[in-house]
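Appendix B. Raw example, untouched.
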Amino acid sequence: MVTLFKLSESDKRFIIAILLLVVLVFVLIGFIGSIVVRVMKWQGKKIDTLCRDAVVARVVKNPKHFKRYAMKKNNATFFKESRVPLIILLVSGLTYLLSCIFLKMWPYNIFDYKDTGFTTLFYIWDFSDCYQEFFGVKLLSKWPTNAINTPHFSVNAIGSYIFVVTFLVGTIWYLIVVQRFIARLIRIIKLADSIYSKSLENYNMADAELEERKRSIGE
């Protein structure tokens, strides 16, 4: 039998580690997905509170009217919730612009680890000699020992520090607001179908006749 290639012990361990990593990634994705679905269901119930009085009072009388009314409520809530993260993003943009003006630098490099970037606060490693060719593909095989930057504070990087923090906070906050909007939108579609549904799936004629007789006797 002809052997096309032979794996060393290090190659075998590397393959096992890659397979375990792939399995872990899939498990993690599934776990995060289930959490997102549950959170969106919880977020979507906000529309119940916004539309309950109108539905109970029969102000909205059909699915089309309900969707139109609920969308107005949903849009108003979205604009109200998005004001703060948009203001934070505006502050982030102004910080970047002012940094360019004061440092007379355009564009302002927020990734410079020597002087002007937020990466001055982190270790920067040299990965140039840490790759190994595996089946014709260069993959990371070891952690580097040479750090080309150690954490240090730079006055010229203050703009970067503020920009990165405000940008991340504003972006994540805004994405959460968008997620809430989508969750409420999905809930609106489901409620429009269920509230005004005339399905006979759980209808029992015998129970209905019994309830009718009880009411007639009571009267």
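End of appendix B.
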